[in-house]
Specification:
Radius of gyration: 14 Å
CATH architecture: Orthogonal Bundle
Strand content: under 5%
CATH superfamily: NusB-like
Shape: globular
Distance between the termini: 22 Å
Helix content: over 70%
Number of strands: 0
Number of helices: 6
Number of domains: 1
Order of helices and strands: HHHHHH
């Protein structure tokens, strides 16, 4: 989430962001590799990911969604769309937890609703 937030706010290119994630000594190697994989998947498929999120938004436009919530939705949507071995419920629950930690008081419920609609459209729950 932090990497996608950085990319959307500061407009950093994906390559140095991914390299920094892989080199981060505070992250276990498998966590850094998985996070870098998700960021790369989003980068390669951002139009389709954003389209799926937009379809799941109820009377909202993606560019009006808070930056933190948008980054969380993008990570979780990428996981739901392109990482089938992660159960939808796990991806959604993790996104809700992150939204509760980094977003507003309403972020968890908002993220849950959007991802639930997206998951129902694209995956089995």
């Amino acid at each position: 989430m932090k990497a996608l937030f950085q990319m959307q706010v500061v407009e950093d290119p994906v390559e140095p962001v991914v390299a920094a994630m892989r080199a981060d000594a505070e992250l276990p190697e498998d966590v850094g590799s998985y996070a870098a994989h998700l960021v790369t998947l989003f980068h390669l498929n951002h139009d389709d990911v954003d389209k799926a999120i937009t379809e799941a938004l109820d009377k909202w436009e993606l560019n009006r969604v808070a930056q933190v919530d948008r980054a969380i939705l993008r990570v979780a949507a990428t996981e739901l769309l392109y990482v089938p071995d992660v159960p939808a419920k796990v991806a959604i629950d993790e996104a809700i937890e992150i939204a509760g930690r980094y977003g507003s008081n309403q972020s968890g419920g908002f993220v849950n609703g959007v991802l639930d609609r997206l998951a129902r459209a694209y995956r089995e729950l």
